[in-house]
Design goal:
Distance between the termini: 31 Å
Radius of gyration: 16 Å
Shape: globular
Bound molecules: D-xylitol-5-phosphate, zinc ion
CATH topology: TIM Barrel
Strand order of the largest sheet: 1-8-7-6-5-4-3-2
CATH architecture: Alpha-Beta Barrel
Order of helices and strands: EHEHEHEHEEHEHEHH
Strand content: 15-25%
Helix content: 25-40%
Length: 229
């Protein structure tokens, strides 16, 4: 995985057909997805349940790009090896999930993955100041995590602060929640490079009509890159 700051669209398969993950992943990748975003929820850190390591390992067989696994679980550390074995390329833990995020990030890298740290809307940019050399990605939540389809909370000022703090370190800024062609330009201009989108990618399409996924991905990318169509 090489580093760049080009806009990357990472569809969240939380909005896919849960009975057809393999074909859904192949469809979004064929239609231009750069990464595949996998939302793991435990019904404890967030009020919703999704899937665990065996399901993620099954998704892996269909992912040709980058599998970006967003853990919304607490605790994280006992599961790091299981997600490494499941084939996660990037494993992101929430800063709010436990008292020892520094140790968690070290353990994620130690298990051979890129390490991400996610910030809830109420957590300030300053909270990651001492973690910048231990992380490969900072995920700025623009909704309170737990569900797809919520409305965007403006975190533009936080993204700008993070972009300055990061400087020339190879650290991605990812935005997660309520990203669509209207909100994408705000965060892209502020310095984000990875845009997660669930409902705005899967809306209106299906594996039988994958070209809609392609149109949706293009609309977000074009808006983020400043091409208004
Ligand atoms: C929210 C998840 C998101 C979510 C995004 O807890 O982390 O990845 O699926 O969905 P949309 O794009 O619909 O807000
Ligand atoms: Zn997510």
């Amino acid at each position: 995985m090489s580093f760049d700051r080009q806009i990357k669209i990472a569809p969240s398969i939380l909005s896919a057909d849960f009975a057809n993950f393999g074909a859904e992943i192949e469809a979004i990748e064929a239609q231009g997805a750069d990464w595949v975003h996998v939302d793991v929820m435990d019904g404890h850190f967030v009020p919703n349940l999704t899937f665990g390591p065996p399901a993620v390992a099954a998704f892996r067989k269909h992912v040709k790009t980058v599998m970006d696994v967003h853990l919304m679980i607490a605790p994280v550390d006992p599961y790091i090896d299981a997600f490494a074995n499941a084939g996660a390329d990037i494993l992101t833990a929430h800063l709010e999930a436990g008292p020892h995020i520094h140790r968690t990030l070290q353990a994620i890298r130690g298990a051979g993955m890129k390490a991400g740290v996610a910030l809830n809307p109420g957590t300030p940019a300053e909270a990651v100041r001492d973690l910048l050399d231990l992380t490969d990605l900072i995920c700025v939540m623009t909704v309170n995590p737990g569900f797809g389809g919520q409305s965007f909370i403006d975190m533009t000022a936080k993204v700008k602060t993070l972009r300055m703090m990061i400087g020339d370190r190879p650290v991605h800024i990812e935005i997660d929640g309520g990203v669509d062609p209207k909100t994408a330009p705000l965060v892209a201009k502020a310095g984000a490079d990875v845009l997660v989108a669930g409902s705005a990618v899967f809306r209106g399409g299906s594996v039988a009509q994958p070209e809609i996924y392609g149109q949706n991905i293009r609309a977000i990318r074009d808006a983020a890159q400043g091409v208004y169509v």
